[in-house]
Design brief:
By secondary structure, this protein is mainly β. The protein has helices at residues 209-212, 267-275, 372-381, 384-387, 391-400, and strands at residues 4-5, 16-18, 28-30, 35-40, 55-62, 76-79, 83-88, 91-96, 101-104, 117-123, 128-133, 139-143, 148-152, 163-169, 172-177, 185-191, 196-202, 224-228, 233-237, 242-246, 252-259, 286-293, 297-304, 310-315, 321-325, 338-339, 349-350, 360-362, 365-370, 410-416. 9% of the residues lie in helices and 39% in strands.
Length: 417
């Protein structure tokens, strides 16, 4: 198959802006926003591409295995300058940047003094963690060392709305809401100083009068994607093609418009043939499942209920787009998409998480989870020459050689260009 991608960049004036890279040296561009990126997903290549196309170096961080920190594959984690915070079901575990286990941040459960993490947000400046309790619905605040500070009992969302996830941005909790009949707004900010809610985006999707009173047959709960940057927050609603930026004054502006043409899953199709009526299955079409803006690239995951997941790489310097597909698509499998690792030849890089397709990013690096059995198999099979190709690999050889199927997963860190 062959890619057909059309990129339209609107260079109508010169405007100096900084990319959302969390980098000490942000890349300067001369663009006027919003920028339209039109991508034809009707055809996509099964050629996986090379890691060297986007990256310059790879690291592997084995997570220490202990009786208190035994992990299977996990889907929710946050990277800071010094730590990894990993949500494993209702637990929240802290590892340092070398993968050394530090602590389980709180006692898990529903009882007094116990917390069950459903989502969490990190303030790396003040070393605070905000945990949304999945059962109690309140917010518990902890220091990085696990010391409990307080509970925020005041609702961070309207009482008739269902919170999907939270993030920390500019002394506020950024709150995403599950799409549901009678939901008034989809995104909001809870001011941690004033204990007040500020609506960021209303729910502009419509239901008829019968649907408003009817419980949906199927709710797509992971329908928001956002990225917290140094000075702005980027976000998009599930079926929207527009990525918005939110500045420190909580002023919203469109930044990127991603055109999918006839390949887009539209709201009416999903509402009428998926949300309320499962006869015949949900409709065809793609949506942007997640995105990340880096220094030189924007990455997108495109998902569908019936078709293979796709990954797109938009090069901000050249305006080119490369769309990748999984060669062995199986609707029953997790269908990750990989880049061939031509940097150190140890193991291919999975561009997003299994099943949910989330991209993990911090400070111009992409991160992904490698299950220990997969890493051990790959490392055992590579040549001695590859294992000793760099000083880093030679120094880490004693550690990598001990990883087996009973070890915790390995975090693969890719330094982007």
């Amino acid at each position: 198959m062959k890619i057909n991608s059309t990129i339209i960049l609107l260079f109508t004036s010169l405007l100096i802006i900084e990319s959302c890279s969390n980098s000490n040296k942000p890349k300067t561009q001369f663009l006027k926003f919003p920028i339209s990126i039109d991508v034809n997903l009707g055809k996509a290549t099964i050629d996986s591409g090379n890691l060297s196309d986007i990256a310059k170096r790879v690291e592997y961080i084995p997570l220490q295995t202990t009786d208190s920190a035994f992990l299977n594959y996990f889907y929710d984690y946050t990277i800071t300058r010094d730590y990894f915070f990993i949500r494993d079901d209702i637990r929240l575990l802290e590892f340092d940047k070398k993968g050394i286990f530090r602590k389980n941040l709180f006692k898990n459960g529903r009882g007094p003094g116990e917390t069950s993490a459903g989502s969490f947000a990190v303030d790396d400046t003040r070393k605070l963690i905000y945990v949304l309790d999945v059962y109690k619905g309140d917010i518990k605040v902890y220091y990085y060392d696990g010391k409990y500070i307080k509970t925020i009992n005041k609702p961070i969302n309207s009482s008739d709305q269902r919170t999907a996830s939270i993030g920390y941005f500019n002394n506020s909790l950024f709150v995403t809401t599950i799409q549901f009949p009678m939901v008034r707004y989809l995104f909001s900010c809870f001011d941690l100083i004033k204990d007040s809610i500020r609506i960021v985006q209303n729910n502009y999707y419509k239901y008829d009068k019968i649907q408003e009173k009817k419980y949906p047959s199927l709710i797509y709960s992971t329908n928001q994607s956002f990225q917290v940057c140094d000075s702005v927050l980027l976000f998009k609603e599930w079926l929207s093609d527009t990525i918005f930026s939110l500045n420190n004054n909580l002023i919203k502006a469109p930044k990127y418009i991603i055109g999918l043409g006839n390949n887009k899953l539209n709201w009416e199709g999903w509402r009428d043939h998926g949300m309320f009526n499962l006869a015949g299955g949900p409709p065809l079409g793609y949506w942007i499942d997640s995105f990340v803006e880096a220094k030189s690239f924007i990455f997108f995951v495109f998902s569908s209920f019936k078709e293979p997941r796709l990954f797109a790489i938009f090069n901000k310097e050249t305006g080119s787009v490369k769309v990748l597909a999984n060669k062995y698509y199986d609707p029953r499998a997790n269908n990750q998409i990989y880049l061939k690792n031509d940097l150190d030849n140890i193991i291919a890089f999975p561009l997003m998480s299994k099943t949910v397709g989330t991209i993990f990013y911090f400070d111009n690096c992409l991160y992904s989870i490698i299950e220990s059995k997969d890493f051990a198999k790959a490392y055992t099979s590579v040549s001695v020459k590859s294992k000793r190709a760099t000083k880093y690999l030679r120094d880490m050889a004693p550690v990598f050689g001990k990883i087996d199927e009973f070890s915790n997963p390995v975090i693969m860190k890719v330094h982007l260009k």
